[in-house]
Request: fold
Amino acid sequence: MPIQLAAFYVGGKEIFRGNIIEVEKASSNNGIRVTAYDIGYVLHRDEVSYNFVNKSASEIAKTVFAGKDGQMSLPVGKNC
Reply:
């Protein structure tokens, strides 16, 4: 299944954004159960370590956000 996104809003403000992991149909009624995890779930499962010497915070951020060893990469904004 391709990655599908779920986002929830209250009063026009986004309160959740995450990837849909599982969709289950209830057998007793027309209900469904959707399981979605935000980026924090993915990040907490990654175990990787780095050792930086004489690097700027910007260089460290770019390296970490690029990911390594199959780790998920994250986009880098203007501040890096």
Observations:
- The longest helix spans residues 57-66.
- The first strand starts at residue 4 and ends at 10.
